[in-house]
Amino acid sequence: MTAAAMARGRFVPFALGLGTLAAFFVAVEVLIRLNAINRYIVPMPSQIALAFERVILEEDIVARFWLTFKEAMMAGLMIAVVGISIGVLFYRFGLLRRACETWVAAMASAPTVLMYPLFLVIFGRSMWTIIMMGFVAGLPPVILKTIEGFAGTRRVLLNVGRSFKLTPVQQFVKILFPAALPTIFVGVRLGLIFTLINIVGVEFLINFGGLGQLINDLAERYDLPGTYAAICFVILVSVCFFVFTERVEKWLRPVD
Amino acid sequence: MRTAAAPAALGDPVTQLRIVIVLTLLVTWELLARSGLLYRDVVPSLLAIGGAMYKLLSSPDYYYHLGVTASEIGTGLAIGGITGLVVGIVLGVNRFLSRTYESFLYYLGPTPKIIFFPIMIMWFGVGPGSKIAMGTLSCFFPIALSAAAGMRQIDKVLIRVGRSFRANSWQMATKIYLPAMRHPTINGVRLGLGVAIIGTLLAETKLSNRGVGFLIIQAYSLFDMPRMYAMLIVLFVLAIGANALVGRLGGLDSLKRA
């Protein structure tokens, strides 16, 4: 297949996908104008598009985005430091790992975000409640993937280290950690996604903080185009975040 | 057999370590509760939590709320699961449709679904409808993506066998596709169940007058911390248990052992 044919093969589905989305918005616009859809429940896409400017300028979206970003980064830093440390500890002490790994996996499937009222009592209605909720949600995948990364280090690499008579610290720094890094990053990436989901969610639920609070504020004011525009903005932010971390993961992944 | 197995299990160092960790945590908790270092009731004593759990589990009112939540989650999972499965199969079968539309699912999947709750309230009202919609929306994405991935993993020979027997679309779906993609689909349902529970319960904590989510936020409003801890513990056990049950029913355990 030629390069041009391959490019065409990628472009056509992409264009059709965007075209379908545009056709959907046009259809909704027409149906609302024809009163087939109640305009007090679903605002016109043109109104939503116009509301973007208002939401960005009047609702101080940059400051809100920055606040959510700061919360996510603080929680992200905490899950990376604590999660990787616990993962290393579990890898070093096999008994501890065998005793606790299933608990960590169970924690990953538990609806920990429902602890937010408890965290509200402990940390108050503050940024720390949001950060800690993000931390709790993002921790299990980092721990599990760190263990997986270290345990999956190829034996030949470890043997090379031993043949060079590396000390345990050198073995860790020069062989184990670099070999496990791509898998660890998969865990950090998953953790960051869970963290971001929980941070925006808790901001919305407790009406405090950045982007999540904005949606709640606009919905309580019954500003429908603004609410939809803010939701679109959050979707855009999370998609950009997801794509960015995906690119970094691909960059870190070794070539097979 | 059982009497011989029990001491053997207790002699296992992993079990012993687990017991030590649990006991250490419980003792630390109790000491913290009695120390007065934290606000009273933020860390209630184990006795208070145990008492609250007993009261909770012996209250018929709790089972009514649990039933409401379970029915909302079940309905959401059924609607989102069936829709996700159909969409996943269609995307998995057709490469062109997959390249056109699957990226939307892939990128929308990790967005926080709770932000759609104001829209769901406007569309479906403040009753159970908006909670079911949240459950549906939450579980649709993981199930659809898992089903699509599962479809692509099906052995081509199986598909050719189906076609050579001139199976129609329904027969292909029920006799070839669904049995062959059982494990990825069950994994998707497990993920979907987890997020449906979260989506539904969060919606209940935000705006509802029934359901377990409502009870949790009510305990917060009344500052009844032992009751809140009791409800969270029961909820976690139920959620983890339901997750494990789906995996077992789907035969994931036997797959792992193999």
Supply database-style keywords:
heterodimer; A: about 260 residues; mainly alpha; MetI-like fold; 2 domains; B: mainly alpha; 13 helices; about 0% strand; globular
Textual characterization of the structure:
- The complex is a heterodimer of chains A (256) and B (258).
- The longest helix of chain A is centred in the last third of the chain and has 39 residues, at 168-206.
- The two termini of chain A are 24 Å apart.
- Chain A folds into 2 domains: 3-42, no CATH class; 61-252, Orthogonal Bundle (MetI-like fold).
- Chain A has helices spanning 3-33, 45-58, 61-92, 94-109, 116-123, 127-151, 155-163, 168-206, 211-220, 224-252.
- By secondary structure, chain A is an all-alpha fold.
- Chain A has 10 helices and no strands.
- The mean pLDDT of chain A is 88.
- Chain A is globular.
- With 258 residues, chain B is an all-alpha fold.
- Chain B has one domain (53-257): Orthogonal Bundle (MetI-like fold).
- In chain B, α4 (60-93) runs parallel beside α7 (128-153) and α11 runs antiparallel to α12.
- Chain B is globular, with a radius of gyration of 23 Å.
- Chain B starts with a helix and ends with a helix.
- The mean pLDDT of chain B is 87.
- At the A-B interface, α1, α4, α5, α8 and α9 of A face α2, α5, α6, α10 and α11 of B.
